[in-house]
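Data card: per-record layout.
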Amino acid sequence: RGEWVLLDNVNLCNPTVLDRLNPLLEPDGVLMVNERGLVHGETVTVRPHANFRLFLAMDPARGSISRAMRNRGIEIALLGAELHLEAASEPEAVGAISTVGALSCAPAPCN
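The structure for this 111-residue chain is written out next.
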């Protein structure tokens, strides 16, 4: 069955750990779990359910995630009330607003 997974503060995660998830987020992607060794003579492979979703939440003030990981999802910015009001009154402030949240969907597109 498809589950939803939230990785909060994902930008604090070791980049090599996130890089291991990249193949899972590809179309028809899988995760090879080589660390388990061979089971019945084969590498353990995880295939995501069609309803699987991975949500990544981050605060850009504390770093970022790789471009490769960001390219595998849809980014959604959540603005604080004071930022939203400032941006509405000062168009040049819009460029200063950074992404606070990232949403990544795999393997099926979000509808």
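Known properties of this structure: The radius of gyration is 17 Å. Residues 81-89 form the longest helix (9 residues).

See the next section for split statistics.
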